[in-house]
Design goal:
- There is one protein chain.
- The chain has helices at 14-27, 50-56, 84-89, 149-159; strands spanning 2-7, 32-36, 61-65, 70-74, 96-100, 109-113, 129-134, 143-144.
- It is 23% helix and 24% strand.
- The chain has a single domain, classed as 3-Layer(aba) Sandwich (Rossmann fold), CATH 3.40.50.300.
- 15% of the residues are buried.
- The protein contains 4 helices and 8 strands, in the order E-H-E-H-E-E-H-E-E-E-E-H.
- The two termini are 14 Å apart.
- With 163 residues, the protein is an alpha/beta fold.
Length: 163
């Protein structure tokens, strides 16, 4: 399974890019998973529902299954956030995992950058950045506009040797 990060600061367009890129990757026959890191408390369950009530009562994990999907909620209960490698090990087999977040990880990544946000560049300080998407970088580096989905798609397939 290949791993590619989509890294950048909040508001740069990472989620929108993934949303637009995923159908292209899937159309090519790839099985794609996404790992999304959030720095906020995430609630995927509805308060008052049975699975939410089970967690509130002290369950460390609740697996909710339905005819269309299942989800596993694991309470950290004060433990440290798991490392990316630990999360990747929990995924079902797939061809490609796109990672949104974990911008300081040591995995290959594409940097999504917008000058208007006033945030620093991840590259050249991060040798794992393969290309910049968005505003042009100040020094030579592969670069694609965020709307150039054909070129981004081709770059991913070529770079990760997935053709």
């Amino acid at each position: 399974m290949k791993v590619l990060g989509i890294a950048g600061y909040s508001g740069s367009g990472k989620t929108t890019l993934l949303e637009r890129l995923l159908p292209r990757l899937r159309a090519g026959g790839l099985r794609v998973a996404v790992v999304k890191q959030s720095h906020h408390d995430v609630e995927v369950d509805k308060p008052g529902k049975d699975s939410w009530r089970h967690r509130q009562a002290g369950a460390n994990e609740v697996l909710l299954a339905s005819p269309k999907r299942w989800m596993l909620v694991h309470e950290l209960a004060g433990a440290a956030e798991p490392a990316l490698a630990e999360l990747l090990a929990r995924l079902s087999p797939c061809d490609l995992v796109l990672v949104e977040g974990f911008r300081h990880g040591d995995h290959a990544k594409l940097e999504v950058h917008r000058d208007a946000l006033g945030q620093p560049w991840l590259y050249p300080g991060d040798p794992h950045v393969l290309a910049v998407l968005g505003d042009p970088p100040p020094t030579p580096m592969p670069h694609f506009g965020l709307d150039d989905l054909d070129a981004i798609h081709a770059f991913i397939l070529q770079t990760l040797e997935m053709k």
